[in-house]
């Protein structure tokens, strides 16, 4: 749920719609609306809807069976987690919940939990529905029995909301989990590492329209879902629940599509992304992971296509940093020298080249010459523009020059 939807939800609960008065009360049970089954156990009854999809069918921009073409390495890059190397998508649960509120805590209940998983040539979605609060222990035990059969979880904001809330409900009902902490790929965080600077937000609905090519028909806005559930409890009319089952089902299917697309992006970013902003965002992510070969390739491609001289130089500085951190010193030196020859003075290539000559090549004369050249250029620019924009860099260069000259005189 994005910020706009949360605000709508808060407004809606502050100013609830006026209830229609009627002498007739219509009760429509969930079995009359949803084709599901009631599972009985020692803990009570649980309503479960099971839907089976052929994995050759499309959901948005991909077919479901493309999940078999994915490699854990690229999902590790997407999730920024070494544990994802263990991810087996054929033994993973795609997980999403619908809840009675947004804040979490002991007062928030999960009234629907949807789980999707692959089984041979099918993708199966099981949706556990809480017909009334006394059935919660039975529903949670049924969910636990399913979860312990799988090694990993894929969610959308599940690390921050869905999974902690589910664990808190397990604890509340004293259900001891019989499975280890699962490997968890949270697609919200993975999506933000690509699209946070180009899309208005990274909600699943925005990603569906802008990236996944998924278009819903008969959905209900997220902010209305808690209200509709409470109305169901009050009226016992389950007909509006059909929209919520559909909403939850599409969320789970869209997670499969998003997983495939994010994998494709990390496998071949330059082929999958055409937006410069997204490529730079992704390169920054690789920088944080110290994957210098990945972001070097992105910066080189962007430099080749960039027409703006100032932007080209900025990208060159970023590429030089990648070369430096990956110890590609010859490429770094060549690039820094090229950047110095270009217009649009920037202090960074002079400074980096001076460090290189001083500390790695140990050619103090060359280091002194580079620093002196930079200081001369700054002096000219200060006279032309009459400002102190270069004062901090100039101070750093003067300090470096004094140190180099002291070494030369020793």
The low-confidence parts are: none
What is the CATH third-level topology name of the largest domain?
Answer: Nucleotidyltransferase, domain 5
Structural class: alpha+beta
- How many strands, what sense, and barrel or not for the largest sheet? 7 strands, mixed
Radius of gyration: 29 Å
* Average pLDDT taken over every residue: 92
Shape: elongated
Q: What strand line-up does the widest sheet have?
A: 1-2-7-6-5-8-9
Number of helices: 17
The number of domains is 2
- Beta-strand residue percentage: 5-15%
Quick one: CATH class of the largest domain? Alpha Beta
| Helix-strand sequence | HHEEEEHEEEHEHEHHHHHHHHHHHH
**What is the fourth-level CATH superfamily of the largest domain?**
Ribonuclease H-like superfamily/Ribonuclease H
What portion of residues is helical? 40-55%
Second-tier CATH architecture of the largest domain: 2-Layer Sandwich
Can you put this structure into words, describing what you see?
This protein is of the alpha+beta class and 410 residues long. The chain has two domains: 3-11 and 26-269, Nucleotidyltransferase, domain 5 (2-Layer Sandwich), CATH 3.30.420; 271-409, Alpha Horseshoe (Serine Threonine Protein Phosphatase 5, Tetratricopeptide repeat), CATH 1.25.40.10. It contains 17 helices and nine strands. The longest helix is centred in the middle third of the chain and has 27 residues, at 241-267. It starts with a helix and ends with a helix. The mean pLDDT is 92.
In a nutshell, what does this entry contain?
The chain is α+β, with helices and mostly antiparallel strands and 410 residues long. The chain contains 17 helices and nine strands.
């Amino acid at each position: 749920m994005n910020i706009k939807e949360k605000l709508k939800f808060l407004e809606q609960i502050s100013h609830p719609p006026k209830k229609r008065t009627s002498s007739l009360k219509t009760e429509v049970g969930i079995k009359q609306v949803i084709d599901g089954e009631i599972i009985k156990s020692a803990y009570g009854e649980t309503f479960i809807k099971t839907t089976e999809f052929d994995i050759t069918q499309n959901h948005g921009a991909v077919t479901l069976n493309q999940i078999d073409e994915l490699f854990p390495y690229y999902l590790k890059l997407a999730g920024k987690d070494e544990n994802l190397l263990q991810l087996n998508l054929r033994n993973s649960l795609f997980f999403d919940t619908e809840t009675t509120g947004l804040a979490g805590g002991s007062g928030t209940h999960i009234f629907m939990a949807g789980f999707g998983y692959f089984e041979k040539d099918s993708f199966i979605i099981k949706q556990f529905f809480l017909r009334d609060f006394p059935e919660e222990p039975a529903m949670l035990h049924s969910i636990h029995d399913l979860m312990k059969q799988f090694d990993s979880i894929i969610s959308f904001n599940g690390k921050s909301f869905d999974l902690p809330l589910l664990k808190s409900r397990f604890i509340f009902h004293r259900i001891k989990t019989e499975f280890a902490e699962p490997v968890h790929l949270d697609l919200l965080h993975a999506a933000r590492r690509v699209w946070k600077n180009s899309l208005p937000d990274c909600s699943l609905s925005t990603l569906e329209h802008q990236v996944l090519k998924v278009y819903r028909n008969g959905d209900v806005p997220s902010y209305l879902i808690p209200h509709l559930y409470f109305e169901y409890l009050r009226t016992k009319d389950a007909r509006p629940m059909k929209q919520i089952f559909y909403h939850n089902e599409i969320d789970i299917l869209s997670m499969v599509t998003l997983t495939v697309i994010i994998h494709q992006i990390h496998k071949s970013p330059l082929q999958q992304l055409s937006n410069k902003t997204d490529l730079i965002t992704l390169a920054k992510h690789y920088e944080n992971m110290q994957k210098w070969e990945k972001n070097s390739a992105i910066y080189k491609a962007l430099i080749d296509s960039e027409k703006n001289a100032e932007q080209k130089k900025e990208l060159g500085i970023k590429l030089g940093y990648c070369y430096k951190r990956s110890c590609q010193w010859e490429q770094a030196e060549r690039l820094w020298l090229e950047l110095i020859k270009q217009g649009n003075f920037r202090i960074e290539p002079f400074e980096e080249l001076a460090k290189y000559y001083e500390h790695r090549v140990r050619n103090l004369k060359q280091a002194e010459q580079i620093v002196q050249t930079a200081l001369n250029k700054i002096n000219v620019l200060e006279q032309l523009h009459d400002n102190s924009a270069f004062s901090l860099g100039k101070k750093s260069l003067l300090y470096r020059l004094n140190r180099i000259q002291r070494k030369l005189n020793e």
